[in-house]
Amino acid sequence: MLDSMESMTVDVYVARIRRQLLRPARPEPAGLFVQLAVGLAIAEMLVYAVQKVYMAARGEVGMPGHPAPDSVQAQFEHAAFAQAANASLGVVAALVALATVTRWGSRIPRWTLLSALTLTLVMQSLGAAITLRRTDFDLAHLGGSAVFETLSGGVQIAAWLVVAMSYYVRTGRPRVHFTDASALVPTRRVQAVAAYVAFVCALAYGAMKLDWALGGEFLIRQTPLPRAARDDLLERATDAVMQHWVSVALALVGMVAALHLSGCFRPHAKVRRWVLLVGSWAGCAFMVARAVGVLGYGFVNDVRLLSGLVSVPPAAMDLARFHARWDLLLWSPYWLLFGVCWGVAAWHYRRQGHADSSHRSHGSQPAGAHLMDQPGPG
């Protein structure tokens, strides 16, 4: 009898595990913004596949316009087969992105597609980082190829981040049915978009600092800093390297905070909410002040320097103008976008908290909405 009970228990657990592993994800419908990101990700992968087919036809390793060195070419006895395999991986990645927004993809178990998305996101991010690192960022000789590669790499990382995060969120929540169209709150979408943009900005900043900490020089010469700090960066002084690692840690904290600001987690306790809000407002104020020019470099001071309203020693004029151009075109817009998104996400997160508290105090759910009795997929 004990043997039969143990057998039944094992069968029950096996059935539960099988049901969890094979249960379809059935994600929530994707919005227009997510569909656009999926389309960009698919387009990037198809372009990649075509490029690899072209290199396979040539029998070379690398990318069009950037073939691998001869020492690398010699390592591949059948370069065409290797490139054809890479082309097929590009097609598979495009299908993975497509599966997140299609009906047939909703039948795939959540863990399967999330694993594929994570692997694809990591590989595409590494590929985009390699592309950005080999790009010549000299403004005096900045060509169309460098601009295209930079934009393509940035769009590639951002698109795959949106695809992966959206699928994670859309498959991990209880479904909400609205009986009144007025109950659809557009501010939640604004909050999520702003938080995701802040997440991407934090990720980009952390990746750059990690590259510096590991000895890379991606955009390090284009960073506007005082001469002493710039020399420490280039000479890899101990203090500078430690600051890089601290910046990486802060970027990770910022990424986690951005995810919490997106509203994709359960409401937080009052203390955690205020810690998150205070940190977000402080970060927003610092970034906007940096972008405007209150802390030194920024839009105002860049324009003043480039227009000749600021006196600079002749020996440092070329370097100062070089940094001012880069700050005006890249760093100040980046910090402004980062700070504004922090502020917008924090503002809506605060309003969301007030709304949730009001509904809890009245013992009711938001008007026009009710949760299904069954938990959401995943």
TrEMBL record:
The chain crosses the membrane at residues 30-50, 80-99, 111-130, 150-169, 190-208, 242-262, 274-300, 328-349. Pfam families: DUF3995 (PF13160). The keyword Transferase does not apply. Residues 358-378 are annotated as: Disordered. InterPro entries: DUF3995. Keywords: Membrane, Transmembrane, Transmembrane helix. It comes from the Bacteria. This is DUF3995 domain-containing protein. It comes from Streptomyces inhibens.
